[in-house]
């Protein structure tokens, strides 16, 4: 028997949040795509914060975060994590086709973001020197480095699109805000 199921939409997100903590539940992505891009990201940040709030397992949070973003934004064909293992980036939870498993720092868009610790917006992946093609459908990409408050590299958040020039500075700001929510949820909490 499955326990009580709670469905989250933007309208009942916070009211239903209590039910989320009392058994199996569903998180329904609220579509706010009619909003201006910045406002849409603000909505997504609030939803991501609620989704990750009380879960302490970072792998579970990474899996849900990947699915949440993948299903909340249009024109994506891959969204997921590469985590730094101390030497290289290793694929983590994601949505999309199977991915490259390991990426060296400084290689491709992900490795460049990790090495420089700067968000990479690539309007045309075929014009990026050393681009690593995991999905031939990808035309543009954005990668946000994940850095702990003490400066430790956690990994990168990688999102691909089959549309040229899908990502811009507003997406970078929005993705960085979403990643800040993930980092906050992923780091050990003080007791």
Q: Main traits of this protein?
A:
single chain; 191 residues; alpha+beta; Beta-Lactamase; 6-stranded antiparallel beta sheet; 5 helices; globular
Explain what you see.
With 191 residues, the chain is α+β, with helices and mostly antiparallel strands. The protein has a domain at 76-186: GAF domain (Beta-Lactamase, 2-Layer Sandwich). It has five helices and six strands, in the order αααβββαβββα. The protein has a six-stranded antiparallel sheet, with helices on both faces. A hairpin with a 3-residue loop joins strand 1 and strand 2 (88-96).
Write the layout of secondary structure elements.
Blueprint: H1 13-20, H2 37-52, H3 58-72, E1 78-84, E2 88-96, E3 102-104, H4 108-116, E4 120-122, E5 140-147, E6 153-161, H5 169-186
Antiparallel strand pairs: 1-2, 1-6, 2-3, 4-5, 5-6
SSE pattern? HHHEEEHEEEH
Specify the CATH architecture of the domain at 76-186.
Answer: 2-Layer Sandwich
Query: What's the gyration radius in Å?
Result: 17 Å
Average predicted local confidence, pLDDT: 86
Structural class category:
alpha+beta
Q: Give the biggest sheet.
A: 6 strands, antiparallel
Structure summary, number of beta strands: 6
CATH topology of the domain at 76-186: Beta-Lactamase
Beta content comes to: 15-25%
**Which CATH class of the domain at 76-186 is shown?**
Alpha Beta
Helix content: 25-40%
Task: State the end-to-end distance.
Answer: 34 Å
Task: Detail the poorly predicted runs.
Answer: 1-24
CATH homologous superfamily caption of the domain at 76-186: GAF domain
């Amino acid at each position: 028997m499955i326990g009580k199921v709670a469905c989250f939409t933007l309208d009942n997100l916070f009211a239903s949040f209590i039910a989320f903590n009392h058994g199996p539940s569903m998180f329904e992505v609220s579509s706010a795509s009619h909003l201006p891009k910045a406002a849409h990201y603000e909505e997504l940040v609030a939803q991501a914060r609620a989704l990750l709030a009380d879960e302490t397992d970072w792998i579970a949070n990474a899996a849900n975060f990947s699915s949440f973003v993948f299903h909340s934004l249009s024109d994506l064909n891959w969204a997921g994590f590469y985590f730094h293992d101390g030497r290289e980036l290793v694929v983590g939870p994601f949505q999309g086709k199977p991915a490259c498993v390991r990426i060296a720092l400084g290689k491709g868009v992900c490795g460049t973001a990790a090495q420089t610790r700067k968000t990479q917006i690539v309007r045309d992946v075929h014009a990026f020197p050393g681009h690593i093609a995991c999905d031939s459908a990808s035309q543009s990409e954005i990668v946000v480095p994940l850095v702990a408050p003490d400066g430790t590299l956690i990994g990168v958040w990688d999102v691909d699109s089959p549309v040229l020039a899908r990502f811009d500075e507003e997406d970078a700001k929005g993705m960085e805000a979403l990643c800040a929510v993930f980092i906050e949820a992923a780091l050990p909490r003080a007791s």
